């Protein structure tokens, strides 16, 4: 229970507060449309009226939130501001994309409810015009305002039309269609299968959010949903006059013809602040992207991993941070996130880029990766950098005991951490709060070890020379192998150095028994908080998070942190 509270307590609280606000807004605005002002509107529309307006209020609230988690600079700023006060609160910022998705799902849900309710509303509006019976109150209400549209209740002013025409000839209808189409495209293109295989589709369709927000702001400008005015309520009390509609406005009648007006548009009040923040965010990104970046070195690793070493004036980073990289010669619109693999102590910053798609392949070729001869520096493509931005790994040196778990290319943030450890503890003899690091690297193929093995060999040699071999324990796992490779491993298993990595520490085969690993660490470090940092697939994240929650031996708390960008 203690581990659950430490790992998930604040997250659960935030989600419950968010759900509570949604529930409150829905109930509050549902009740607001049950008062006398909306009595005659409900005569026309029934319960579809509050069912349309309540989700609209929730939409305003969630649309206010949806942009905030994807303002890259805002979470980085908040992380730096609050992590000195609350490490638990700072860790919630690493779940910004998860919250962004939850808010998006809520927007989709309330949009669906809002649309269905309004489809009924338009049918009711149309029926009131088609059933031309002067003894039927909905028809009488629909005829109000024929001479002066300022007082009408039914936005469909004639029976010689249909809801489809009204939908495409009114502000509410046109903006509603635009908003819905934009939302459908954004959500469908966000599915993981599309995002992984066709990132450009995901990237471009997500920018339809501009159309979505413009339509959202102007959606209520037509004031289609109208209620009785305050002045009219004094001359026409619905509770009394609804049954006397035949005598409305006649001499001797106490009931005047009711007048109606729509509420002024209010969505802009909800979204203007986050939209302003997002515009400022984009301005900062544009400014930073125009600062000159120099590629000082390009390394082509055998595992088809491209290493770019770069310099940029005024660039400062922390361990585990990431940047967005754009290469104009490849695409002027695409920006891709990459973890920084250099240490803050180095005079350059670097990123390791695995060649797995069209964009990375074209960058690989632009940097001369497909050529055998060395490339001149002036032939290197221009690149733009946005960042750096913070991640969970920034907190690694705030824990006395640390577990680093990387899968495949997911080891990149830990390259920065291990390099920084080497500079701080081994080269400069600095005293750091972290006393023990357990490093786990899981790879499905032997080639993936090549680019990172040099760093581990250097660390291994330096630690042995300085006599601090107990500071870092590392376990490398090969999760898949061929029969020919297995025979080679058996022959060289007794060699001093590992046949795959060249390290003295032997490579392990298969997958770690996480239950045993967590139990062993808990027994060795009683009474401590162990920071568990993962950069890898969701399935591995679920497994590690489960272990963090279930292990509490010797009063140990495992705090789970996952890279999320």
TrEMBL record:
GO terms for cellular component: monoatomic ion channel complex; NADPH oxidase complex. Keywords: Cell membrane, Electron transport, FAD, Flavoprotein, Glycoprotein, Heme, Ion channel, Ion transport, Iron, Isopeptide bond, Membrane, Metal-binding, NADP, Oxidoreductase, Phosphoprotein, Transmembrane, Transmembrane helix, Transport, Ubl conjugation, Voltage-gated channel. Its cofactor is FAD. The chain crosses the membrane at residues 12-30, 102-120, 165-189, 201-221. It comes from the Eukaryota. Its main location: membrane. It is a multi-pass membrane protein. One of its GO terms (biological process) is monoatomic ion transmembrane transport. Catalytic subunit of the phagocyte NADPH oxidase complex that mediates the transfer of electrons from cytosolic NADPH to O2 to produce the superoxide anion (O2(-)). In the activated complex, electrons are first transferred from NADPH to flavin adenine dinucleotide (FAD) and subsequently transferred via two heme molecules to molecular oxygen, producing superoxide through an outer-sphere reaction. This is NADPH oxidase 2. It comes from Epinephelus coioides.
